[in-house]
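Table S5 (text form). Sequence records supplied for joint modeling of the two-component complex.
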Amino acid sequence: MIIKSFPLVTILVLFISAFIMPLIKDGKLVKTISLASMFLGLILSLTTAFYVIKYGKFYYRIGHFSAPMGIEFYIGNIEAVMGILFTFVSLMIIWYSVYSIDREIISSKISLYYLLINILIGSLLGVIFTNDLFNAFVFIEVGTLASCGIIVVKDKKDNIKATLKYLIMSCLGSGLVLMGIAFIYSITGQLNITFIHKELLSVYHQYPRAILISLSLFTVGLGVKSAMFPLHTWLPDAHSSAPSSSSAILSALVLKAFVLLLIKVLYRAFGMDIITEFPVLNIILILGSVGMIMGSVFAIFQRQIKRVIAYSSVAQMGYVFLGIGLGTDLGVAIAVFHMVGHAVTKSALFLAVGAMIEKTGSKELKGLRGIGKEMPATSALFLLGALSMVGIPVLPGFASKWNLALASIEVDKILIIGIILVSSLLNAVYYFPIIINGFFGEENLKDKIYKSKSKPIKELLPIFCLIFAMIYAGFSSGSIINFIKNGIV
Amino acid sequence: MNYLILLPVSLPFLVAVMIPIMKFKERERNFFVGAVIILNLIIVIGIFYALGEGGIHLFKLNEFIDIYFKIDKLGILFTSLVSILWVLTSFYSMEYMKHEGKENKFFAFFIITLGVTVGIGFSGNLFTLYIFYELLTLVTFPLVIHTESKEALESGKKYLAYSFGGATFILLGMILLFSITNNLNFQPHGVVGAVSADNFNLYLGIFISMFIGFGVKAALVPFHSWLPSAMVAPTPVSSLLHAVAVVKSGVFALIRMCYYIFGVDVIKELKGNIYMIVPIIITILLGSFIAIKQENLKKRLAYSTVSQLGYILLGIVLLNKNAFVGALLHLINHAVIKITLFFVVGSIMYTTGKKNISEINGIGRRMPLTMWCFTIASISLIGIPPTNGFVSKWFLAQGGLTAGKIIFPAALLLSAVLTALYLFPVVTEAFFRKGDYENAIIKEPPKKMLIPIVIITIIVVILGLFPNPVIFFIEEIASEVM
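The corresponding structure-token record, covering 971 residues in total, follows.
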């Protein structure tokens, strides 16, 4: 079937279109190409997903060389969902950036910016689809460099500092991943995840230490890249200094791809039988819970709105790690669902905040007082996103918290419910003041003119679509989680 | 046909959206708001006669995420009470809000709150109730901080913090409960089956956690302090918060939780009610004691509410029929009495700008009719026969005796004395003290404020003289759950 090649075609379309961009000087044309390629990617991902729903998961051999020699893509339910998520969210973000990017970076860099975005999304999709660890590593490296690029493209002092920090941490992370791969390769002689798993099952008794080392290398290496709690230090700087559309991509998508790879390594390459013999899941669980609390606590003390949202990402990634650490199918399914919910919500929040910063010229929380009167539509969208983060029922944030709580009861870890509840209260502590000061207060609203800074509707449409997707994800949380769960077994 | 249930819940939302869009003139808007709220009342009552007891699953994903509306007698009792008082309050606020300003915003949220409160009344399971309960906090917040002064914002934050803290306890209980029962629908006698030794503590924990969670909105001491702070809100909002919308939603949710989720037998087995009796008795007495010391009229009434809510909570946890009837009766009676008291205080503020008890000497000469209404309501709240307050306290005392402890009737009597101590001074100051208004000509508040006050006072009197229809209705509910 030709559809089986669609994941590869998506990546190729993104890469090839990326390399056309520098040849074109016209900024508008570059934007159109980027949008069109991403749109095509979304269509292809949707088709793939329908194929997966109808015929089930499939492997795709690249260049007709069969595994273990050739590289293989594996498309299951999770990958199909993620494919749609990544292409959809990045399409919306690019759509938004079309209007706003000229105000954030100089015009000569625009074609470079879109080139980097296309490469970044392509490589992230590669990380998700691939069934080959070394191939995944290559995509990780491409992705790392591209994501550094979209931060530093703004060319300010802060950006360069943040990028260096990010680059160093990130390279450290990918170095660890590479070493992890090396350890596995030395035991099994394989790089294909399916084959590694088969091989490991027969040999893992002989190499408990090597497996422990490689497990920890993967966890820490991918943990750095996906901002697992004590390894998150690069994130606030990077996310807050980048242009808004970059922050949205970094927070919504880049973190997620690496977590997904971690899930693949843990649950598919090693498999439940092996990882339950090591304490790695419990460590992930604990780090996830600590991240949920500490991320929020840090967020409370921030003065700049983008840093608040960046720290909130640390907390939200904690939920994902918590789900992974539970070590059940349901836990992993919720982790993936939370990635979906968080990706749409957080990108909408970053874009909305980007619009606010652009119009008011202030990054500080103080400067955004009374914003609800000046930019009612944008603030309303922000409000909806924040409500999901806080966990108001039916929105996806609530759905994942609820299901995580149920999943933790299932494995007799009732304490975790307390952590989840405390963390959602903490979320309220930093999101509500932004909203309250935005919409209410005599002093806050003084001298503010109604709709004086509002953006045109067409520029808000992408945020609106993201929020709509968020509400949809909340309402159909049950069926999405079921679909993902069916893919794990 | 069952989709009709959604109408009184969704109509207010639609209307609230229309208010800012349509750019009404003041008269048009008042007419529109009044008409819609009356229409909503008619629909609520009409639904009950047309559908009887029906239900509708609006949207069901799995056992848990199930938005389910159901009509039963308890829900109808609550929603009709809400709708009737909302009509009167809306006319009152059309006049009152003139001096507070920002009327469009006020009425938009005012109407949404009606929809949300009706939603609480019609919820058919705990999850739906929880959603509306959270929404209630969010939509009443703008009403509480209406003046948007710094003080108001602070109080608003306190209100949010208490409410969300409480909601977290509810959520904790709900998650644990759902993991055991897999069913959160409201059924008489509850959905919790038998309690066994190994999950006894868990059930007890769930019960207490949820009781405290809902108790926050029902102003259970020590979680009551948001209520007096929320007095910065405009008077119609305070009266509604107290009389029906917020605190009574808390009480209503507690009734749902105790009698329709856990069931009387299970709670008796858990002895969960015993743990709650101490804070409730403290609530009754402490509220009254603090009220005596309050100089500000609205604050005095606020603490009075705390104390009176204690009566209702006591009726709920005594778990016998008389007490239950007393609790529901007092829910209604306190609602109508307290709204009268607030309306009168509001009209004093509106016409003279006075807020404190020491400033209203002799005001009875200026507004005799209004102050007479206040007097009647005070007498009713104290519980002197033949007023409605007497009827509900009678049932509560009976319930207390059935439970076999003399302390309950004793606490009720003591609190009644205290009630007299904090309400009668207002009456005597108004009528018998010589003061600023001694020679004032009679100048009642504007008609739109006076007429609702008089109507509710008449309702108070009627409920005292002819309580039987209501008692019969409540006894039917009681026999369902006992």
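Note: Chain B has a mean pLDDT of 85.
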